[in-house]
Amino acid sequence: MALIILVGLALRLAFLGQKSLWLDEAMTLRIALMTPAQIWRLVNEPHPPLYNLFMHGWVALGRSEVMLRLPSVLFAVLALPILYGLGRDWGGTKVAALAAALLAVMPLHIWYSQEARMYSMVSWLALLAAFLALRALHGRRRGYWIGAVLATLAAMYTDYSAIIWLWIGGLVFLAQARRRPELRSHLRVWGLAHGVLLIGYLPWLPMLWQHARGVVPAQFGVFGASLFRALSMPVAPVQWEAALPRVGALVAVLALALAWWRGANAGTWLESRWWLGGALGALFAASLIAALVPRGYLAKRESLIGLPFLLLGVAWAISRAKHSRMLAGGGVALSLGFSLLTLVFVPKEQWREAAAFVQAQQTAGDVIVLQPAWAGVAFDYYYQGGAREIGLEPGAADLDVAVLRRDTRRLWLVQYVPPPPLPPDPLVAALDGSYLLQLSHEWYRVRARLYAVK
Question: In Å, how far are 65, 105, 207, 242 from 79, measured between CA atoms?
Fold first, then answer.
C-alpha cells in the first residue's frame, strides 16, 4: 500500500505548476482572499462554502500555482488508503489493493487532483463517509456513525453533487433494508443520522435557496435537460456532456429498482449476470478516454465522486475473471499510460502565456479590453503591466469609444475563446472594421488582438 501511495503522490505532483491557472482556479484565489463572512454570503459562487473557507486559511502559506493546487493533491492521496480500507471490508485484500492501484494511476482522478477547486476534496469526503458508514453497518463502534455523519455533512458543505449521491445511496439502503433484517436493525440510527444532517445543514439553507434561484440552475441545467427531455434531444458529438448525466441517472434508477426488486439477493443476482463485467469494463474505458477530451467538464466533475466505487467494481470483476493477474496489470498499465498522456498533452486555459505576450508588447497609453469581464480574474493573476482594463459582457458586439481616453494609442482585445464550433464574433468584426489590426495571437481558449487606435 505504501508503494501505491508513493506512486499516486508522484503522479499528482508531476507538472503541478507547469500549466496556467484557468478561470475557475483563479476564482478560487479571489474568493479565498475575501473574509469568511463574505465567503459565506457569496451568491455568485455555485458551490457551498467549506472548500473556499479552507482555502482562505491555506493561501496564507502561498499563492503560487503549486500552493493553490497542493490541497487537491493531498485530498486525492488521502483517498487511496480510504479506498483500500473500504475495498478490504467489502471484497477482500486483493480487490482493495487493485482498486487503490487503479485509483492511484487513474487519469481523471489525477486531473482533478491538480486543480485548485473543491472536486478532489468532495470526492475524498464522500469516500470517507462510505467507508465509515459501511463499518458502522457491520456493527463496529458507534463512533463510525458519528464519523460518517460528519464526513457526509462536510461533503454537503463542499459541493452540491454530494447531496445527489447521498440521496441515491439513501434510497438504495431503504430498498435493501426492506428484505434484510440485519439492515432493518439500523433504520433507527439511519433516520437519526439523516436528522442530524438536516439540522447541520439548516444554516446553509437560505443560501441554498438563493443559489437554487440563480447560479445553480445554470451549472446543472444539463441535469434538468436529462430529466425532462430524456428521449427528445438527439445526442450529437457536441451534446455528449448532456448524455452522460442521463446515463448516470438511468444507472441510479436501475440500481434502486434492483435493490427493491431483489432485496437481500440483489448482489448475488447481479454477480451472476454475464454482462456485468462488460458493463464495468465499458465504464472504465469511458473514464480513461474522458480525461483526454478537453470537453464535458461538468459531467466529469459530477462523476468524480462515483469513480472510486466504479474502480471497486472493476477490481472485483477482474478478481473473478480468468487471467486476473494479466488483466490487473494491463488495467494499471493502461491507466498509467493515459495519465501520462493527460499530464503532458491535455492543456488548460493559457492565461499565463497571454498575459506575458501582452505585457511584453505593450506601450504607454495602451488599453486592454477583456471579454467577458470575468476573464480578468485569470488574466490579472499573471498580468503586471499596469495598463487600464475595460470589461465587456460576453455578448457585447461593439466597444463604446467614449470609454477610451484621448491619449489611447493602442487597444488590446483579450478574449476567452469557447470550445468549437465557434459562431462569428461580432466584437472582433466591429473592431476589425474600425481600427487597424497590428497583432493577433491565439492560445488554448485565449485570444489576444492588438489594434492601432490613432
Answer: 22, 13, 29, 28
Locate the domains of the chain by residue range: 2-345, 351-452
Residue-level pLDDT at 368: 94
pLDDT 10s digits, 95-109: 999 999 999 999 999
Based on C-alpha coordinates, what's the Rg of the chain?
A: 24
Ranked by mean pLDDT, the top range of 167-176, 223-232, 441-450 is 441-450
Q: Residue 264: which of 180, 171, 187 has the closest Cα?
A: 180
Residue 113 buriedness (CB in 10 A; 0-12 / 13-18 / 19+) = buried
Q: Reply yes or no on whether the pLDDT at 55 is more than 60.
A: yes
Report whether 370 contacts 393 (CB < 8 A): no
